[in-house]
Amino acid sequence: MWINEMNRLGASRIPFLFIIDYEMRHPTVLPLPAVDPRRILYAAGGISNCGETDARGGRPVALASSPVAYDLYMESFNRLQRHLRDGDSYLANLTFRTPVVPGAGLREIFFLSRARYRLWWADRFVVFSPECFIRIEAGKIAAFPMKGTIDASIPGARETLLADEKELAEHLTIVDLLRNDLSIVARNVRVERFRYAEPILAGRSAIIQTSSEVCGELPGDYHARIGDIVASLLPAGSVTGAPKKKTVEIISEVEDYSRGYYTGVFGIFDGNALDSAVMIRFIGQEGNEFYYKSGGGITVYSDPRAEYEEMVRKIYVPVA
């Protein structure tokens, strides 16, 4: 059982990598010395098992993509809206998979991409995520929910984003959800920073993203309960919605595919601290086919055309 293995390794202060798919059907936990770099490469929290110069060049990575047709998007969007109007959910993430032809191999994309968290698993996927799941260090746990984006090239983009009432409502919902989630495992849970804006590389352009920092204090034996802590917080609230349990059921109903590892989490425990990411910005491999998976948060106030365009806009590889 992966939870017990994480607890065992944590109690013994043995560094490990964990990769947990969205449905939690195929979790993997490996002591760091057991990670074969010919099959898995990772870079998170300043810890990596690769030479950063292997394939770095900063060149563009072309992605020929064929997004789902707008009318098919609308079928799922309208099914989701019925649940939102009935009050079954207040916010739900709707995602799709887009067939792509990457202009480089997934391993090379791992090296070319610029992101806080990167992971490559041979013949499965590559992820270059800007979003932290949780960090644990010195008895403190913190989450950094990201919700709300805008094209950074728009004049007054930051001010426009921060003044957007729909984006604010979404952000408040996710922050409240994360407060409740962290309260399951921690005490004195509080919002340390609320809705700060920062630029995120998106291809060769940039977006501005709003995030918050929610933190709490863990009990003294938390190293031996690392697995229980992570499991209690899954799936990640920022890529599901609120209320989480019902929204996860709705997502399963309205999405036309299995997310797999997309929107799951991966992270590294270094023997003392843990840093982890939500697996967004994701290219999956299925045989000889490749799919980019993306989406966004939907509320009753969502404009379907804008949400569709956001889903398409997120199909990129961040290179500098």
What is the count of DSSP helices, taking H or I runs of 4+ residues? 8
State the major sheet: 9 strands, antiparallel
User: What's the rounded overall pLDDT mean?
Assistant: 92
Q: Could you name the ranges where pLDDT drops below 50 across 5 or more consecutive residues?
A: none
Strand content: 35-45%
Query: What is the number of strand segments?
Result: 18
Rg from Cα: 19 Å
* Approximate shape: globular
Helix content: 25-40%
The separation of the N and C termini measures 40 Å
Judged by helices, strands and strand pairing, the structural class is: alpha+beta
In N-to-C order, the SSE pattern is HEEEEEHEHEEEEEHHEEHEHEEEEH
Keywords:
single chain; 320 residues; alpha+beta; globular
Furnish the topology, listing elements before pairings.
Elements: H1 2-11, E1 16-20, E2 28-31, E3 40-44, E4 47-48, E5 63-65, H2 70-85, E6 91-102, H3 106-112, E7 117-121, E8 125-129, E9 132-137, E10 140-143, E11 146-151, H4 157-163, H5 165-185, E12 187-202, E13 205-217, H6 226-232, E14 241-242, H7 244-254, E15 265-269, E16 274-278, E17 282-286, E18 289-298, H8 304-313
Antiparallel strand pairs: 1-2, 1-15, 3-4, 3-7, 5-6, 6-14, 6-18, 7-8, 8-17, 9-10, 9-16, 10-13, 11-13, 12-13, 15-16, 17-18
Helix pairs in contact: 1-6
